Hints:
Helix content is 0%, strand content 39%. It is built from no helices and 10 strands. It starts with 21 loop residues before the first strand and ends with a strand.
Amino acid sequence: MTDPQIPNPAGATPATPIEPVWTAVGNASEWPANGGRLARVGARRIGVYHHADAWYALKDVCPHAGVSLVQGPVHDGQVMCIGHGWTFSLTSGEVVRGPQGVKVGTYPVRVREGVVEVAV
Length: 120
Ligand code: FES
C-alpha cells in the first residue's frame, strides 16, 4: 500500500517492507530474573537479557578484547564486561563506562507465548 502522504512518481515501484526473521532462543522461564543468557543464532553470539521486566539483546562480544558480555553483572539497565569493566547500555548498546563512541550491536527481542525470540 502506498502512503497517501508521499507522492509516488510515475513508474516507481513502492518499497516492500522487509519483515524481520524471528528466531526462538528459549523459554522465558529459563532466564534469570535479572540477567542474561547466551543465544546462538547461526554464527551469531547474542546476549539476551531479562532486566526490570524488559528484554534486551546485544551482540555478545565486547569490542575491547572480545570477552562475552553476558557473563557480566546487570544493573540499572546496563551490563558490565568482566574483562576490564566497560559498561554498556542494554537499550542502545552504547558504552556508558569506557571510551566514548564505542558501541555493541543490538537486536529486536520479544516474548510470545512464553518463548523468547530474537530478530536477526
Ligand atoms: S574485554 Fe570488555 S572491557 Fe576489556
